[in-house]
Amino acid sequence: MGTGSKRRARFNWTDAKSAGYFASVKWIRNRLLLVLLAAIAPGVFAETKPADRKAAVEREFRELLALDDRLHVEVDKWIRDNAELAESNAGVPAESLGEQVRIRLKEVEDAYVKFVAKHPKHIEARLAFGSYYSGLGEADKAIGQWVEARDLDAKNSVPWNNLGKAYGQKGNVSESIRHFTKASDLAPKQALYYRNLAAMLFAYPDQAARYYLIERSHVLPKVLSLFEQARKLDPKNFPLAADAAMAYLATQPLQADDAITAWNEALALAPDERSKAGVRIHLARIHAHIGKAKAARDILAEIKEPKFAALKAEILKKLDAKPAPTPAKP
Fold it and tell me: Do 133 and 13 meet the contact criterion of CB atoms below 8 Å apart?
């Protein structure tokens, strides 16, 4: 990835679920999948004092990001090494390591505080600072930085998206919907924003119905439409395709043909055998549900991943079960 792509990738927060305090060596970085944002200032500046000052600020900001990256690599190594030591009961307690990590990363926080004090209108610094706080689980502080970024440039879609995610995690569904909608309005060619909005509506259909003043039954069609928009913009994205296919499983009655089509499209994009096995489990369930036992068995036969053995056995058990006898008429 080029330098410009990395710079664009830092600021836009996507969905990332926490899996526990030290669930992986990515601890902080896995909280964020940072994408997009327009290219930053050109590398060549005119020989004028304002341009020189701008170049100096950008150099300072690059140094700040480098510090952020360097210290996160360092603490990631601490966590990884401690996980290996823990296997032989030689690691330090998670609470103790967590405190060491917080102390070390305080240097990053102090650097951000100093930078935004000097350059309070630097939007990218506000976005990155918010992501730093988000990675530490300090949602209110993250929101504070992203609100500053949003208010500095209300036409920048990135802080609207980040705030949509943050408000959603805090349970403020209406604000989350409002911010995701605004992000997609500002950047209608970004699939991420439609996906985030669709996921929020899918997760909270009752609140979504109240927000739009519609019947609850009308929320799912809106979700499917949003996923369709996202997929048109990013047709080769496997997680997006899987999310869209999952939404079809909530249709009542089940839109089996559409669901099968969606899962087959996801299957074609699956990057590895484990991902393919997960998709096939869903396909087998749908075929079993609609009475196509042979098709379900054929799909299950292709699943070799041990991780899915229990789910595979569960579906086969249901397929093997004899139907209950029909009661005799009196």
Answer: no
